[in-house]
């Protein structure tokens, strides 16, 4: 995993509490794990979405290992059991047909509806502003994160048309990182989503390469898309693999200046 170093930041003010209330199991209809920031300041929330056939448990461990400054972690488990399997193996949406074949054009609506409920709870009950909420998703989880960013933005644009006083950026999240997760839709937006996006993927001819046109599709939905390729399949597992992600977060994670708190930068202090 990559290294980081820290530097003192300029003073900033915030109307949200420094320590956020923990999410409630009664409000989130799937198993999850929430970890407050190690340094006692919950300025950012990183939501982790696992891939097809996994659970939130490994991503809970990952989030704790990252130890991102001023960043709480929420790892969610997908809502549906993968059919034909008897182990803990979950999917964000129906992914297989009755013959066990992958569905070519799946419908992510159930996952987006779930995340809408989760975000409503986080924003209204836990004091998280959307621009301080960041997503990290692997494969199917990356697709869901990116698709949800589009839905949230569309809902905001619709609300803004009804109430022009709403800020343009009110529908943007802090960032989205998608590891090998293409969009599932064909976005047509009159106003692009300003949420910063990082897409990390394996180039062809890798079996896990994104479909042709996948990055172009992202750029039809988001105005700030960074593309990085990786030769290593699966989740990042080395310093080299994590470096572009840590650099991306160093630019987009929020910072609240209080005594003893600093800005995350790529560089020198080792992360386990």
Automatic annotation (TrEMBL):
Classification via SUPFAM superfamilies: alpha/beta-Hydrolases
GO annotations of cellular component type: cytoplasm
InterPro entries named among the record's database cross-references: AB_hydrolase_fold, LYPA1-2/EST-like, PLipase/COase/thioEstase
Annotated Phospholipase/carboxylesterase/thioesterase domain residues: 40-147
GO MF, one example: palmitoyl-(protein) hydrolase activity
UniProt-annotated stretches for the region Disordered: 1-31
Alphabetical list of PANTHER family matching this protein: LYSOPHOSPHOLIPASE-RELATED, PHOSPHOLIPASE_CARBOXYLESTERASE SUPERFAMILY (AFU_ORTHOLOGUE AFUA_5G09340)
Family: Belongs to the AB hydrolase superfamily. AB hydrolase 2 family.
Record's protein name: Phospholipase/carboxylesterase/thioesterase domain-containing protein
């Amino acid at each position: 995993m990559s290294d980081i170093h820290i530097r003192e930041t300029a003073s900033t003010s915030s109307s949200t509490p420094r320590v956020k209330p923990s999410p409630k199991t009664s409000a989130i209809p799937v198993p999850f794990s929430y970890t407050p920031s190690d340094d006692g300041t919950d300025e950012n929330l990183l939501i982790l979405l696992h891939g097809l056939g996994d659970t939130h448990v490994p991503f809970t461990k990952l989030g704790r290992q990252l130890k991102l400054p001023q960043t709480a972690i929420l790892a969610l488990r997908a809502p549906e059991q993968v059919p034909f399997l008897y182990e803990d193996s979950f999917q964000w949406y129906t992914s297989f047909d009755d013959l066990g074949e992958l569905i070519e054009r799946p419908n992510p609506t159930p996952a987006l509806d779930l995340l809408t409920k989760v975000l409503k709870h986080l924003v209204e009950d836990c004091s998280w502003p959307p621009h301080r909420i960041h997503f990290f998703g692997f494969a199917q989880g990356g697709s869901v994160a990116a698709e949800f960013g589009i839905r949230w933005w569309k809902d905001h644009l619709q609300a803004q048309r009804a109430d022009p006083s709403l800020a343009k950026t009110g529908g943007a999240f802090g960032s989205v990182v998608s590891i090998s997760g293409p969009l599932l839709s064909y976005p047509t937006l009159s106003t692009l989503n300003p949420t910063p996006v990082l897409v990390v993927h394996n180039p062809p001819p890798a079996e896990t390469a994104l479909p042709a046109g996948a990055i172009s599709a992202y750029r039809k939905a988001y105005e700030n898309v960074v593309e990085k390729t990786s030769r290593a399949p699966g989740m990042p597992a080395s310093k080299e693999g994590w470096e572009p992600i840590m650099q991306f977060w160093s630019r987009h994670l929020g910072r609240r200046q209080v005594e003893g708190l600093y800005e995350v930068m790529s560089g020198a202090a080792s992360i386990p």
